[in-house]
Amino acid sequence: TLPPRSSVPVDRDDIANGFAGKENPAWDSLPADRREDLARRMATFAAMVEHVDVGIGKVLADLEAHDETRNTLVFFLSDNGACYEWGPFGFDGLSRKGTTTLHSGDELANFGQPGTHSSYGSGWANLGNTPLKLYKHFCHEGGISSPLIVRWPAAITRKNEWVQDPTHVMDLMPTILNAAGITPPKERNGAPVIPMEGLSLTPTFSGKPLPERVLGFEHQEARGLRLGDWKLAWGKRMPEAPQWELYNLKSDRAEQHNLATEKPELVGKLSAAWMTWAKRVGVDLGNEKAASPRGPAAD
Fold it and tell me: Residue 180 burial by CB count (10 A; 0-12/13-18/19+): exposed, middle or buried?
């Protein structure tokens, strides 16, 4: 069963296309000209993805042609989360200064040509993230998740398997250094080097688990924390006042069953861990009350 469609974040009505705080509209509810415009927006995006795919294929083919495939470590990952900006019909132009235009005729045919810039909007972003919740800008799974494919024939013994350990982009550098047998420097030009926080992923190449750790997230007041199977998330730009949400990702990766009211002590423990992390890394805590250990925002 698919989860309900994600809501359109609350923003100016002109850029949210009149759907601020409402559920993304169903495709069949839209008039034919709007569906044609949206289909062209997605086709343009899909064409860009195909260009990426072809380019990566050329790189891998070159490695094969030079007999360098076996001992070359390749990471392939995407950006995090499909982007909702800013409403279900997308926009044209520069981000928040852009306007939504219903294209037809030659304008529709010119999508993706030099000098054009168009987004596909929250409806397609919702589809792209399904079944995960919400979008880029948020710290729910639809906003922070990225697929990662790793290839290193000489060293990876497990083949064609899903690895479920929680990982982070900060793990890539430690993995590369570890694979290359390089110890990171502790100082440079007489100044201490801040230690890397990531972990090497090389143990997973042979089926070993990574140690459990706290992973904190924050983006423009959206907040999240992962510890083991538990995920804490704090939203924004929704009709309801934000408060901490608690999910068990092992049984509920789509974040459909908020357990915060059932497990207040765990919410308190994890939100305190988030605050400790946030202060250490320098998160702007201008609205610190909103991150109180018990969850609900205070007036």
Answer: exposed
* Distance, CA of 42 to chain centre: 19
Residues 6+ apart with CB under 8 A from 44: 111, 112, 118, 120
Asked if the model's pLDDT at residue 33 lies above 50, the reply is: yes
- What residue ranges do the domains of the chain occupy? 27-144, 167-209, 212-299
pLDDT of residue 102: 94
**160: confidence class by pLDDT, cuts 50, 70, 90:** confident
DSSP string, 24-62: PPPGGGS-HHHHHHHHHHHHHHHHHHHHHHHHHHHHHHH
Residue 297 pLDDT > 70: no
Predicted pLDDT at 90: 93
Helix (H) or strand (E) holding 276: helix 264-281
Tell me the CATH number for domain 212-299: 3.30.1120.10
Mean pLDDT calculated for residue range 55-81: 96
Continuous segment of H or E residues that includes residue 143 = helix 141-144
